[in-house]
């Protein structure tokens, strides 16, 4: 039985549902078992000041989940880290790992959603993407800048302009195919369907990938992929898009 530590924004209602659902599917396919243990960092409004305060609160959260002797810690925080500038995920993952070690005397791998998204796109060879984000346009630009400084070109994007994080969690994933239909996809390698840990997207991931024939990744699927990799497990489960082993036919032929 693997213990998963989650650090989430206090108003987040998505990662504690989508990640367990994906790992439930992994358990059905591979026989793995999971328990989940969360700590919450305060966040209500998605603005730069609130995001910075939440990142600072993450150190307390890391010590709390480490007390449960978890096997991996997932820091479910994307734009908050990206707002700190290129490569911020590297420093925060190390810092939280050090805090977890101090708290538990156990070296625990830490993955962040920001780092997971960058690394997953790189590992899948997705160098030119289109992005759907729920943020106000200035925050979406922070995400785009972060990806581009990591070597990933953002060819097109949509900002849904929702500032209240609770309202982001109530967005309907059934609307995502319609947003994707408005994107310019002719010259992209893949789609970031939800560049946010709060915007629900899992039910739409496989339909959008099947509809477009392009690899689809989200903050949640990339984070789940890295949880599995950190535990030495195969990142493969059904109906969750390219990050978790379900590549479009054209990609399977060249993989």
UniProtKB/TrEMBL annotation:
GO terms for molecular function: maleate isomerase activity. InterPro entries: Iso_Racemase_Enz_sf (IPR053714), MaiA/AMDase (IPR026286), Maleate_isomerase (IPR028615). Gene3D superfamilies: 3.40.50.12500. Keywords: Isomerase. The modification S-(2-succinyl)cysteine is found at residue 77. Reaction is initiated by nucleophilic attack of cysteine at the double bond, yielding a covalent succinylcysteine-like intermediate. Belongs to the maleate isomerase family. PANTHER family: BLR3294 PROTEIN. Catalyzes cis-trans isomerization of the C2-C3 double bond in maleate to yield fumarate. This is Maleate isomerase. It comes from Hypericibacter adhaerens. The lineage of its organism: Bacteria, Pseudomonadati, Pseudomonadota, Alphaproteobacteria, Rhodospirillales.
